[in-house]
Design goal:
Two copies of one chain form a homodimer.
Chain A: H1 5-17, H2 23-33, H3 39-51, E1 55-58, E2 66-69, E3 75-80, E4 86-90, E5 105-116
Parallel strand pairs in A: 3-5
Antiparallel strand pairs in A: 1-2, 3-4
Chain A binds a DNA duplex (25 and 25 nucleotides) through helix 3.
Chain lengths: 121, 121
DNA sequence: TTAATTGCAAATGGTTTGCATTGTT
DNA sequence: AACAATGCAAACCATTTGCAATTAA
């Protein structure tokens, strides 16, 4: 794993954003530092960073997958219908597991709030 | 809005399944009744049924959208990692709105449990 | 009869892959 | 030099659309 300019730019896009990013958002943000950045390269780097556990995927209902830095505390997400950006939401409504139907086994849960962010509200 | 054989079959696929269905699942299920059923027709009918509010979309994180009969009580969903089927989960952990960050407005929420269904567990 | 519905093929949008080229070490 | 990373074009997959043929009312 070599350290290239584009990889550096992709990393710092996540550091700077502080919220989950879509591949296109990564291209736009990192592309300011490295204008020749290619979308294919973004996809390949995101994939590699997930395999190396630097990033995790953030599946968003009805939307393209986002990515965020790995190792954050358990939290959930907010999808803004105005700007399509995704934000982290600290905390978790406990008592989610107890919804599990009899005979089923729950290993994870996704909670996504949908609405308007501070800017769009 | 004319009543065709294929539309009838699509309707009854939902009645019979009792769980959210993907377009492909609809094709498979309704295709048993109407073998010449075409995937394009399924997509067009699903879209029409959503506009007419007979169905609602069920966005599943990281997966293709599912559809289910409209008008059900508020509930959530369970995604089985074994068979990729989606099931309804009655109930709702209250206290979800209180996760909303200051300045944000929450208008809806999605909760998806992920794990193994009764058959796959 | 005639307007809605269908089927097929082609277009689309997001993501992935093959392969030759470039860049780090 | 050796091999990982990149760029481009083509392949993919799910979904949508154009258009001519079919069918319910």
């Amino acid at each position: 794993m070599r350290m290239t300019e584009q990889r550096r730019a992709i990393r710092s896009a996540f550091k700077g954003a502080g919220r989950p990013l879509s591949p296109t958002e990564v291209l736009d943000l990192a592309g300011e530092e490295v204008p020749q950045l290619n979308l294919t390269t973004v996809y390949r780097n995101l994939k590699g960073m997930v395999e190396r556990e630097e990033l995790v995927q953030v599946p968003v209902p009805g939307q393209a997958v986002r990515y965020e830095l790995a190792g954050l505390d358990h939290h959930h997400h907010f999808l803004c219908e105005g700007c399509d950006r995704v934000f982290d939401v600290p905390g978790c409504p406990g008592s989610i597991q107890r919804l599990t139907p009899v005979g089923f086994e729950t290993t994870a849960h996704e909670v996504t709030l949908v609405g308007r962010c501070r800017v769009c509200a």
